[in-house]
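Quick one - first record:
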Amino acid sequence: MTQLAPHGFPVLPFLPVAPGVEMRVLRRDEAQGMTFVIRMAEGAHAPLHEHPGGEETYVLSGKLRIEHRLDADGHALPDLALAEGDYACVEPGETHDGVAVEACTFFVVARGGVALKSGARADAP
């Protein structure tokens, strides 16, 4: 039997997206982007990726560092150090990667989805 969330959609499992990085897609819409939860093991790296429509991140537990940030014009931006309870909002077109300073879980709204720098979209199967 399929487990359903209160809104009636199936609860999807966490799926691996990189070593030590798992994603649970909560909602995916071609026009509106994605909502998902990421779990990262301590020391795990999220690959370099772009947020065409920007990104909102809320850290539920642990510590995360968002690194190698570039704005839509390719200008370097400072790293972001986030811990439990922190919120970050990045502008459309930002590219970055991330590392779990300690095991962490965070909630993400990515209005334009997520595009890996290789050009593949990271929207989980």
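second record:
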Amino acid sequence: MTARLKTCAQLIAGLLPALVAAAPAKANDALLANDCASEIATYCSKVSPGQDRIVACLIAYEDKIAPRCRLSAYQASGNLDERMKALRGFTKVCSADILQYCSKTAPGGGRIYDCLKDKQATLTDDCRKAVPQFDKLLAD
């Protein structure tokens, strides 16, 4: 690596945390609408807005979207990371219940979560306690 390239890499590494810090949700929506309109229309037009789904869609197509849109998507992804951590925690707490009560339920579209809600009376205590917390997470 040349000295110039190394200096540029260090500068970018130093500035990156400031550039990708998550902005408030409304500001993120405006930023994405401004910076990613064509990408959203091309790649994410069938994605239901809310709960950071548009951000997740844009990140899934990061190799195809413009650099400005990619940066905006990463700026908006802070909340997505929190949601993913909560989802992993929820699935860990409820994994036995999912296997026992919802193993024949097709994944996607919230069907497994709906199955757990339908079987709430028979869930383990920990999973039953996690369902209302997950309801809050799903709210916009």
